[in-house]
């Protein structure tokens, strides 16, 4: 998922992130690297190694090889291969000179596995997706098969719809995160960023509605409308105007910090029976942030800070859905108690 997920400690992190964005170009600003990529895109080779995708000028293949989309795909493939192998060579040279690894195009030099650019981040994204799916299914089962239902077969819990949408958006964003870390091109980056913003924005809405117990439909619309409008505008802005990493970071940090504070305040004042789960998630998310501050290069070429950050959210997702199930149970039982006392 995009770099901007859940971020408290705002100012410190913000500075760090802005710095790391500008720092990101150190590797690819290197003239040797640039010369290598430039040469490769023309010749299709880095040293003895040549890439078939770079020879798209031959107009002799089957019909689909003449399609613009196919040609574009080939261009990406060629550029990707050139950049990767130039980076590998450059990093080997640096290593023999005893120099530390550098970032290229905003990323550490990762080892590819089966053509996957960042295998660890992909694996952890898939696991996050799986945990969201499991959490969402068990929420669904608890709600409709374990807890009592109203006479019209609907659930008593008032936040059902919101958590369903949240589950869908979360799974969507982890899916695009896995795609993005598999192959980082313009379109996959935009899809990853956009779906991450969507889930952060939506979970901000959920946090406001849940922690302030907003149950009246009209009030919910009034609260969500400005957030939805802002999030939609922001997604359109980064997709069709400018993908401004610094500004995007500010937006994500602000929305992430806001919801963590809302949940923390609620955990402190409400007498929710599963308060401790809430505290655990809020504190652990804060601690996991430290991984993004100490953005270290990949260990053994695979495990960098970002991938460990994705690993850290896996147990948090399990705990979070368990809190959501508890909340459904808690609200249902208190609503039933109320209706029983009314009946007396
Ligand atoms: Zn990611």
From TrEMBL:
The chain crosses the membrane at residues 122-144, 156-179, 191-209, 221-240, 246-264, 276-294, 306-324. InterPro entries: Per1-like (IPR007217). It holds the Pfam family Per1. Residues 1-24 form the signal peptide. Keywords: Golgi apparatus, GPI-anchor biosynthesis, Membrane, Signal, Transmembrane, Transmembrane helix. GO terms for cellular component: endoplasmic reticulum membrane; Golgi membrane. Its main location: Golgi. Belongs to the PGAP3 family. This is Post-GPI attachment to proteins factor 3.
């Amino acid at each position: 998922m995009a770099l901007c997920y859940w971020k408290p400690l705002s100012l410190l992190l913000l500075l760090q992130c802005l710095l790391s964005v500008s720092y990101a170009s150190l590797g690819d600003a290197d003239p040797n690297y640039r010369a290598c990529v430039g040469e490769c895109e023309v010749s299709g080779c880095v040293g003895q190694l040549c890439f078939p995708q770079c020879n798209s000028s031959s107009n002799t293949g089957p019909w689909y090889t003449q399609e613009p989309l196919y040609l574009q795909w080939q261009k990406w493939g060629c550029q990707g291969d050139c950049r990767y192998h130039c980076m590998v060579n450059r990093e080997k040279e640096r290593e023999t000179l005893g120099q530390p690894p550098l970032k290229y195009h905003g990323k550490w030099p990762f080892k590819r596995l089966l053509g996957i650019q960042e295998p660890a981040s992909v694996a952890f994204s898939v696991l996050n997706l799986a945990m969201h799916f499991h959490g969402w299914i068990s929420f669904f089962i608890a709600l409709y098969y374990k807890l009592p239902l109203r006479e019209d077969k609907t659930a008593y819990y008032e936040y059902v719809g919101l958590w369903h949408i949240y589950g869908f958006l979360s799974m969507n964003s982890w899916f695009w995160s896995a795609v993005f870390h598999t192959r980082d091109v313009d379109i996959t980056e935009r899809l990853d960023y956009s779906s991450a913003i969507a889930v952060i924005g939506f979970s901000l809405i959920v946090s406001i509605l849940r922690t302030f117990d907003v149950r009246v439909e009209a009030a919910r619309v009034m609260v969500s409308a400005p957030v939805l409008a802002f999030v939609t505008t922001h997604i359109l802005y980064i997709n069709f105007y400018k993908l401004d990493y610094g500004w995007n970071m500010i937006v994500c940090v602000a929305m992430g910090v806001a919801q963590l504070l809302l949940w923390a305040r609620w955990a402190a004042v409400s007498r929710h029976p599963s308060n401790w789960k809430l505290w655990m998630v809020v504190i652990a998310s804060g601690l996991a942030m430290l991984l993004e501050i100490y953005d270290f290069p990949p260990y053994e070429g695979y495990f960098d800070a970002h991938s460990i950050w994705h690993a850290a959210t896996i147990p948090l997702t399990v705990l979070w859905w368990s809190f959501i199930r508890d909340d459904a149970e808690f609200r249902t039982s208190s609503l039933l108690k109320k209706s029983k006392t009314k009946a007396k």
